[in-house]
């Protein structure tokens, strides 16, 4: 099982490295639910996560997550102690703290420019993360950390990039303008109009024509035969008349 998990993690990491330019050290944003699950399942996040992701990692959180853990009291005191050991990333909620899930979602807005991983056990937060392209999701199942497979949103985003070949609209317009200046657009249009499909004569039509010629030739031959018979009859009649006159 451990080998298969490593293979899946390596495959998923290759997807994000190749298509979304994720590089070491990998920045992992953790919330209180993930820290609590790690404590309960006796998982050493700092020691185990780099080996699982096959690269150096930076474990980080936000002030809003720490504030939320403090407000929950003794039930999550151990999770708060774990989260306090991580680096704190600046969020936009200095004066008015928000929930940990809302804060983490704000950190991956606008295409996840800082290439954050999201580590959470909150199912609602996980579903919202899956709706954003290029955001890897980590969670804990049966005493093990798991990197979720790329979401359909990420797969669709990569497919559209490959089909469009990453050509911006302004570059397409500039290419059209350059073609118009050089007169290439008109030449291309003229070439396209001159193109004709190659095609040979229809063999069936040829056969029909041959039949027509044969039919047309047959009556002419019959006419010739009739004329010859008539001429013979005339000559015979003339000869007979001449013989009678001589007698």
Notes on the protein architecture:
- With 247 residues, the protein is α/β, with parallel strands linked by helices.
- Helices cover 61% and strands 11% of the residues.
- It has helices at residues 2-20, 32-40, 45-53, 63-71, 77-83, 100-107, 123-130, 152-164, 169-182, 184-194, 203-246; strands at 26-30, 57-62, 87-89, 116-119, 137-141, 144-147.
- Strand 4, helix 7 and strand 5 form a beta-alpha-beta unit.
- One of its GO terms (cellular component) is small-subunit processome.
- This is rRNA-processing protein UTP23 homolog.
CATH topology of the domain at 1-155: Rossmann fold
- Tally of helical segments: 11
Query: Strand count, sense and closure of the main sheet?
Result: 6 strands, mixed
Secondary structural class: alpha/beta
Instruction: Please give the number of β-strands.
Output: 6
CATH architecture of the domain at 1-155: 3-Layer(aba) Sandwich
Topology, element by element:
Elements lengths: L1 H19 L5 E5 L1 H9 L4 H9 L3 E6 H9 L5 H7 L3 E3 L10 H8 L8 E4 L3 H8 L6 E5 L2 E4 L4 H13 L4 H14 L1 H11 L8 H44 L1
Parallel strand pairs: 1-2, 1-4, 2-3, 4-5
Antiparallel strand pairs: 5-6
Helix pairs in contact: 2-5, 4-5, 4-6
Outline:
The chain has eleven helices and six strands. The protein has helices at residues 2-20, 32-40, 45-53, 63-71, 77-83, 100-107, 123-130, 152-164, 169-182, 184-194, 203-246, and strands at 26-30, 57-62, 87-89, 116-119, 137-141, 144-147.
């Amino acid at each position: 099982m451990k080998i298969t998990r490593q293979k899946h993690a390596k495959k998923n990491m290759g997807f994000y490295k190749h298509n979304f330019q994720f590089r070491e050290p990998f920045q992992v944003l953790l919330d209180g639910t993930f820290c609590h699950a790690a404590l309960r399942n006796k998982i050493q996040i700092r020691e185990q996560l780099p080996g699982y992701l096959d690269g150096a990692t930076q474990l980080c959180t936000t002030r809003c997550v720490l504030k939320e853990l403090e407000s929950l009291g003794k039930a999550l005191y151990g999770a708060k102690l774990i989260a306090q050991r991580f680096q704190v990333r600046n969020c936009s909620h200095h004066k008015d703290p928000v929930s940990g899930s809302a804060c983490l979602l704000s950190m991956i807005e606008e295409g996840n420019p800082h290439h954050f991983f999201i580590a959470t056990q909150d199912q609602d937060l996980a579903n919202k993360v899956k709706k954003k392209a290029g955001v890897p999701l980590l969670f804990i199942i049966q005493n093990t950390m798991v990197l979720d497979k790329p979401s359909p949103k990420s797969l669709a985003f990569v497919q559209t990039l490959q089909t469009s070949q990453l050509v911006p609209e302004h570059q397409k317009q500039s290419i059209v303008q350059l073609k118009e200046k050089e007169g290439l657009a008109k030449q291309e249009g003229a070439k396209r109009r001159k193109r004709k499909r190659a095609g040979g004569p229809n063999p069936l039509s040829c056969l029909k024509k041959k039949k027509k010629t044969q039919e047309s030739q047959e009556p002419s031959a019959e006419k010739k035969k009739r004329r010859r018979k008539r001429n013979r009859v005339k000559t015979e009649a003339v000869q007979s008349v001449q013989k009678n006159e001589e007698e």
